Structures are given as C-alpha cells and as structure tokens.
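Thread: Newbie trying to understand structure tokens

Hi all, I'm a second-year student working on a class project, and my supervisor (Dr. K.) asked me to get a predicted structure for one chain before our next meeting. I've only ever worked with sequences, so writing a 3D structure as a token string is new to me. If someone could post the tokens and maybe explain what I'm looking at, I'd be very grateful. Here's the chain:
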Amino acid sequence: MSRIRVALLAGVLATSLLTAVTSSASAAFPSKVTSLGDSITRAFQDCGAFRDCPEDSWATGTNSKVKSVFFRIKEHNSSATATNRAVTGAKVASLNKEAKEAVSDKAGFVTILIGANDACANPSTSQASYKSAFQESINTLKSGLPNARIYVASVPNLMHLWELFHTNSTATRSWEFTKECPGIMTEPTSEGTAAKARRAATLAAEEGYNATIKSICAATANCQYDNGALFAASFVASEVSTTDYFHPSVTGQTSLAALAWSQLESTF
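---
Reply by user tm_fold:
Sure, no problem. This is what the structure looks like when written as tokens:
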C-alpha cells in the first residue's frame, strides 16, 4: 500500500473518530431547553422599566454577557434551541400551564424557578396549595416528557433584599410605589410587630416551599434540585436592579446562571 493511501486512510479514520466523539458530546447536551417560572426567569426590569428582557434570562437567555444555562449548553451543542415559557407575575398555580407548554415544546431539559410571588403575597400561598400545584406540574412534565431532565432552583431569600435595602430611601420609596412584594415591601422601614410578622411569614413560606421542592424532586427521576443554593446565595446590591430594587440586574442574572451551571456542568 502506498504511503499516500496510508496517509489518506489515516486521515479518514481520524476524521471519523473526531466526528463520532463530537456527535457523542453533542448528544449528551439537550437539543431543546424550556424555562418555566416567573419574572425572575423573564429577566423583568433588567433592561428597562416594567419590561421583560428574556435575552438576559439566567436560564434561556442569549446575551453573551449573562452566559445563561442555555448559552452554555449551546457551546457544546450548536443545534440546541430554547423557549422561555416563564410569565411575569406567575405563581405556582399557573406552573402546570407552563409545564404543558414545555411538553408541546418537546423539551429535553427544563428549568423551574417559582415561588417568590407566592411567598410575597399577603397572605402567602399555603404550603398545601404550593405542594399540590408543584406536584401536578412535575407530573405533567414526567408524563409528557418521560426522558427530559428537570432542574429546579430554590426560591431566593427575599428577606435578604430587605436586609440590603431597607435603610436605602430610594429603594424603600420604590417598594412602596410598586408593591411587588407586599410581604417585605409594606412598611419596609417599620420595626413594629405587624411588619416583622409579615416579613417572618414571607421567610417561613419560602423555607416551606423549598422543603417541598426538595422532597418532590428527590422522588422524581431525572429531577435535580439546587439543594437550596439560590436561597443561600448572599447576593450583593449590584446584583439587584435599581429600577425596582427587587429583581435581578444583568449582573444578578449572570450570577444566577453561573450558580446553576456550577451544579449542572458535570452532569452532562
């Protein structure tokens, strides 16, 4: 056999092996990503007042500065696509509708972040109602997408927002105007009994929701809970939008994405 033919065969073999390795790597990463949740996942308020900015979403955004979970998946699987099904203002009661949309998307990977609006309400959504609605949504995903992976982020610690900004007069004026989270924004500077009770109820609701998420996810195949990482995150002022001092800024969305990816990267 001539040296030229040997060289050509070696080249073909190397190309074939590279193609096989590349295809295998791509196959490990999902081709369709769908994000579910509320205004946090819609990146509300981070690119302008009272606007959704889904390109900045921690989960399915396309902004190269944020480097969302989807953005990082696409670096490994160039054919991957994403759909953001989250709805600003959503509570867990509407999560099943979003889950049905994820099924229609034929998603291979689904992210969920839901519960802040439930905790913020006065009174908060009951633990029983949260559990029932969340379980229904997971059931919808698993029956409609039995092979899909699910990543569920914990509900963030809204009391930490109060700790950061309750002495900031610009922030408290914004809270009193928008009333986006009555549990912590009503009488934000008060140390009275009623105000403290509202804040404590918001915190207790979140802790209960996170316990529910952990339990349900643990009992569900291919479901990964962040193990309270988002709730425990000690975000700083620069990670919060100065439009309303409540939602994540672009920097905040970037941090959310990095936190999620630090848990996900090794699992693909």
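A couple of things are worth pointing out once you decode it. The CA atoms of residues 152 and 225 lie 5 Å apart. Residues 1-26 have pLDDT under 50 and may be disordered. Feel free to ask follow-ups in this thread.
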